[in-house]
Amino acid sequence: MSAFSPANPQTPITIALSKGRIFDETMPLLAEAGITVLENPETSRKLILPTSDPCVRVIIVRASDVPTYVQYGAADLGVAGKDVLIEHAAQHPGGLYQPIDLRIGKCRLCVAVPNGFDYPNAVRQGARLRVATKYVQAAREHFAAKGVHVDLIKLYGSMELAPLIGLADVIVDLVSTGSTLKANNLVAVEDIMDISSRLIVNQAALKMRRHRLQPLLDAFSRASLAMPG
């Protein structure tokens, strides 16, 4: 058995997190379990961070990579947005247990268009639409349900630029306050789904190390229930 196998009882419990909002909003949940991360990922160059519990460590990865690290056993637990999990599941079905909606990282996945764009006419059944998005699977399913043919253009950032320079007709993106849309003369015209972050667990680790993971899962559950709305 590999020394770093999640099934090895001697291996520290590994939690995969991404920097930024998810990391910041996960810290109070870890505190509920009596765990403090000892270094700040914004100032530390380390990608493996120690915690106040020598049996628990945190690894810092890209948000889109969190499900991969957990599914393939490099991490026991992780925190990822529903948007990321939908896209991951399209390429890697199965293999992840999602026991808890942590009710953090809340936003909406929306369709946004330039001000004045005739969206109702553009999404009539049988129409064709160019859609720029990072969330290809969610966008495909949304417009397929409307009977709209879409040309999907995958982008990784600056989504708002696409309809302004003619690359796409509309965008599908995460919206929190809407201030970035407004600054670029765009408006959200349709909500696709509410997004929040989920606790995800490696299935083999849960089976082999449940006695070590369950207290963490219980603490996350308690803390998430205390989150507002």
Q: If you had to describe this structure to a student in words, what would you say it looks like?
A:
It is built from nine helices and eleven strands. The protein has 229 residues and is of the alpha/beta class. It folds into two domains: 13-105 and 196-225, 3-Layer(aba) Sandwich (D-Maltodextrin-Binding Protein, domain 2); 107-194, D-Maltodextrin-Binding Protein, domain 2. Strands 2-3-1-4-11-5 form a six-stranded mixed beta sheet. A five-stranded mixed beta sheet has the order 8-7-9-6-10. A hairpin with a 5-residue loop joins strand 2 (48-50) and strand 3 (56-60). It is elongated and about 60 Å long. GO terms for molecular function: ATP binding; ATP phosphoribosyltransferase activity.
Architecture blueprint of SSEs:
Elements: E1 13-17, H1 21-32, E2 48-50, E3 56-60, H2 66-71, E4 77-81, H3 82-91, E5 96-101, E6 107-114, H4 119-122, E7 128-133, H5 136-145, E8 149-154, H6 161-164, E9 170-175, H7 179-183, E10 186-195, E11 197-202, H8 203-208, H9 210-225
Parallel strand pairs: 1-3, 1-4, 7-8, 7-9
Antiparallel strand pairs: 2-3, 4-11, 5-11, 6-9, 6-10
Helix pairs in contact: 1-9
